[in-house]
Known about the structure:
Distance between the termini: 74 Å
Oligomer: single chain
Number of strands: 0
Helix content: 40-55%
Strand content: under 5%
Largest sheet: none
Number of helices: 4
Amino acid sequence: xxxxxxxxxxxxxxxxxxxxxxxxxxxxxxxxxxxxxxxxxxxxxxxxxxxxxxxxxxxxxxxxxxxxxxxxxxxxxxx
Length: 79
């Protein structure tokens, strides 16, 4: 078996490839500039600041009962 030695692309092929990549880059930049900046959903913008992140509610009553007087007031405040 005779192995084929890969050849380098010619100058014309390199220029064609470069022109295609520049055109693709130009198209991507134009598309990005036309679209509006990504916005967060309204529900994410109006999140309460008084929430307790990553703590299940039943753990609050079990391990930190000093945080709330009773369950009803706690649930009304944090929900």
